[in-house]
């Protein structure tokens, strides 16, 4: 495994799918840092702007053709990820596709078909790490999306790693998080100490792990409002306009949230002239737009668990004296893409923002079209964004101030606010440490604030080995001691192995030769020893023998003592032991085993009345064979030679071991007649560990 770990996250939203690629140091490398602050921090996640790619529409549009979601939609994003992640790292890189609000609106069967096709396509067309589809490919609840966003925002703002720099008072150092997409909106924050105790059962327990193995825990409230995203809110608004007219004969419906004179179809397509079919006509009355969008908040819905904010959903009381919120996605795009031109102050000011929106939306459509052509509001603003911005602005203003209760900085007396608003006056958000009640953001230190980053932070944190054997795992679940039943792990890996010894090394090469590796010296010695042993066995018996003799000469003075201590050589060094090679043809092409006498039943052979073992009574002649019966007293007979004239008195230990294996023989000249020529007396009994005085050494060629 290399120096870097990678993660691929696909955000399958309602309007499109976006791939995000992140990387971080593997924990073995990260722990080699000498910076104590980094060791006590979460893994450092890196990304680049070009590593992100988005395509439209969302995967929910493939509900009627799920088999095409891979080839027609995901292939481009998958190839982009494979181009970024090094080939050697692909198999260790997890891939996640997490779908949000758009997929939540489909039926269970439609969702299952699309997700199954996504999983099959990923496994067939990439080698990314995908151990279990149910964890890596899924539709995440709005609460999970909000929690991931909260992690991302606080990670980039630095409140995890440097809490002392973000003290808001009352022992509080984190930021609240707001997100709004096309279909849903989320809120996540840590209540003050009083609300945390009062609503403990409504909170989520989040556990993260630092590089050094220590943990951080947070108790967060998070909830989501489905159909409160800008696209779904607009759909509900148009339906409310039609219902308010109360007549089916009307084709033209006045819309105060569209610029004056603009005509669109009910689903938002711009038309040039009046239509016979139902359509909308803009009146450009922003104050009326604010008034008519307010009922969509459903503030009067029954609240089963007080307090509630929107649609009867319980939310603990927000203490704006310590809870400072940042908002992303539509909160950023709607407040900045049009209305930031010519203004240096990016902090959110209700009074200033509402003045800018009113001035823009009161223009007729012709003037706005001219401004678009002149790039008066920047190159990113086109006709589609211009027609939508008035409704979006009114919806966001109502959500923030009438719905969630963010103080109206610049208009309201914050000190008298029922929400205990902050005491700070409006300044640049970053200069103040984002201490305004609300600040819309898009990037922090050039990194986009996306909930996908929160997912990667959680995953990378889970890969850090724990210091203590009984350490609790990384993840989130109900606010209960230990590991609750609904605890969600970042991936299929559960609890990583305890202790630093379980950490992962980037590669055997780096572990052995890395300059800062604690295993460098012993690992290098072990590597050299393995090489020496391998060369020793590969050099051949002859060279080993010569090496052995040279070593004996070097230690000649202590040779006698060593011989007494080690009377025999190792079988793979010397020639005393048996050789498992064939007898060479030169000079010994044919031989046979002659009769042999024995006076014992050694090795399992019992002598008969004639002094010959039963096994030899059935003997056969063997031509050119290197093996024979297991008989100690064997004689060789060669062609044109009489066994009575030449007796081979070679010590059996040098010719045959007790298993009947023949020593390597290269020519007849190596065999010397014994002193007892012509006799057929028994050969001497085998003697282990002793050389025959009649055997000349074989000369190696």
TrEMBL record:
Q: Give me the residues that bind ATP, please.
A: 182-186
Query: Membrane spanning segments where?
Result: 521-540
Question: Listed GO molecular functions?
Answer: ATP binding; GDP phosphatase activity; ribonucleoside triphosphate phosphatase activity; UDP phosphatase activity
Q: Which residues form the active site?
A: 145
Q: Where is the composition biased (Polar residues)?
A: 622-632, 674-686
Keyword Protein transport attached:
no
Q: Name one GO biological process term.
A: CTP metabolic process
What cellular component terms from Gene Ontology apply here? Golgi apparatus; membrane
Matches recorded under CDD domains: ASKHA_NBD_YND1-like
* PROSITE patterns reported in the protein's UniProt record: GDA1_CD39_NTPASE
> What is one Pfam family matched by this protein?
GDA1_CD39
Where is the sequence biased in composition, kind Acidic residues?
596-605
Q: Which Gene3D superfamilies match?
A: 3.30.420.40, Exopolyphosphatase. Domain 2 (3.30.420.150)
* Record PANTHER family: ADENOSINE/GUANOSINE DIPHOSPHATASE (PTHR11782), NUCLEOSIDE-DIPHOSPHATASE MIG-23 (PTHR11782:SF121)
What is stated as this protein's family in its record? Belongs to the GDA1/CD39 NTPase family.
Protein name per Swiss-Prot or TrEMBL: Nucleoside diphosphatase (Ynd1), putative
Q: Which organism is it from?
A: Talaromyces stipitatus (strain ATCC 10500 / CBS 375.48 / QM 6759 / NRRL 1006)
């Amino acid at each position: 495994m290399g120096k870097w770990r990678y993660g691929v996250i696909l955000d399958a939203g309602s309007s499109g799918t976006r791939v995000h690629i992140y990387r971080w140091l593997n924990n073995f490398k990260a722990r080699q840092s000498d910076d104590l602050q980094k060791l006590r921090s979460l893994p450092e996640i890196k990304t680049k702007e070009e590593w992100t790619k988005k395509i439209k529409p969302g995967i929910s549009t493939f509900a009627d053709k799920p088999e095409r979601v891979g080839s027609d939609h995901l292939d481009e994003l998958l190839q982009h990820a494979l181009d970024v992640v090094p080939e050697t790292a692909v198999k260790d890189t997890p891939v996640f596709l997490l779908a949000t609000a758009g997929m939540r609106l489909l039926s269970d069967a439609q969702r299952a078909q699309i997700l199954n096709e996504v999983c099959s396509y990923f496994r067939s067309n990439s080698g990314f790490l995908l151990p279990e589809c149910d964890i890596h490919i899924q539709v995440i609840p709005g609460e999970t999306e909000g929690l991931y966003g909260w992690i991302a925002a606080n990670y980039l703002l630095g409140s995890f790693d440097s809490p002392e720099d973000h003290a808001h008072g009352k022992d509080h150092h984190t930021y609240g998080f707001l997100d709004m997409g096309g279909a849903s909106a989320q809120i996540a924050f840590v209540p003050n100490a009083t609300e945390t105790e009062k609503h403990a059962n409504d909170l989520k327990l989040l556990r993260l792990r630092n590089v050094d193995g220590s943990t951080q825990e947070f108790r967060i409230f998070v909830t989501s409002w489905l159909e409160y995203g800008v696209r779904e809110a607009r759909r509900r608004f148009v339906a409310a306009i039609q219902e308010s007219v109360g007549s089916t004969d009307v084709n033209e419906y006045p819309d105060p949230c569209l610029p004056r004179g603009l005509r669109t179809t009910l689903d938002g397509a711009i038309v040039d002239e009046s239509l016979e079919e139902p359509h909308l006509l803009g009146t450009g009355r922003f104050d009326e737009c604010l008034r008519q969008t307010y009922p969509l908040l459903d503030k009067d819905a029954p609240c089963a668990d007080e307090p509630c904010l929107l649609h009867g959903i319980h939310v603990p009381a927000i203490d704006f004296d310590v809870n400072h919120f940042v908002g992303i996605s539509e909160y950023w795009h709607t407040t900045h893409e049009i209305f930031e031109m010519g203004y240096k102050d990016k902090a959110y000011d209700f009074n200033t923002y509402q003045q800018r929106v009113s001035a823009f939306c009161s223009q007729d459509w012709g003037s706005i079209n001219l401004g678009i052509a002149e790039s008066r509001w920047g190159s990113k603003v086109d006709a589609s964004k211009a027609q939508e911005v008035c409704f979006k602005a009114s919806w966001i203003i109502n959500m923030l101030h009438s719905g969630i209760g963010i103080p109206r900085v610049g208009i309201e007396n914050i000190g008298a606010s029922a929400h205990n608003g902050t005491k700070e006056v409006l300044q640049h958000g970053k200069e103040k440490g984002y201490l305004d009640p609300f600040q819309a953001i898009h990037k922090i230190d050039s990194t986009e604030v996306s909930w996908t980053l929160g997912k990667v932070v959680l995953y990378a944190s889970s890969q850090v080995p724990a210091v203590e054997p009984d350490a609790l795992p990384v993840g989130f679940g109900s606010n209960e001691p230990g590991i609750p039943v609904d605890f969600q792990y970042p991936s299929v890996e559960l609890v990583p192995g305890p202790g630093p010894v379980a950490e992962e090394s980037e590669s055997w090469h780096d572990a052995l030769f890395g300059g800062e590796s604690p295993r460098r010296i012993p690992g290098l010695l072990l590597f050299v020893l393995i090489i020496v042993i391998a060369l020793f066995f590969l050099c051949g018996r002859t060279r080993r023998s010569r090496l052995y003799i040279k070593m004996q000469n070097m230690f000649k003075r202590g040779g006698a003592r060593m011989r007494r201590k080690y009377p025999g050589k190792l079988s793979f060094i010397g020639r005393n032991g048996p050789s498992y090679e064939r007898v060479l043809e030169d000079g010994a092409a044919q031989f046979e085993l002659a009769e042999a006498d024995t006076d014992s039943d050694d090795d399992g052979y019992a002598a008969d009345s004639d002094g010959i073992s039963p096994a030899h009574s059935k003997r056969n002649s063997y031509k050119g064979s290197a093996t024979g019966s297991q008989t100690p007293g064997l004689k060789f007979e060669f062609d044109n030679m009489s066994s009575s004239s030449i007796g081979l008195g070679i010590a059996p230990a040098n010719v045959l071991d007790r298993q009947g294996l023949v020593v390597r023989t290269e020519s007849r000249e190596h065999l010397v007649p014994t002193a007892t020529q012509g006799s057929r007396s028994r050969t001497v009994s085998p003697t282990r560990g002793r050389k025959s005085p009649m055997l000349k050494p074989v000369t190696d060629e």
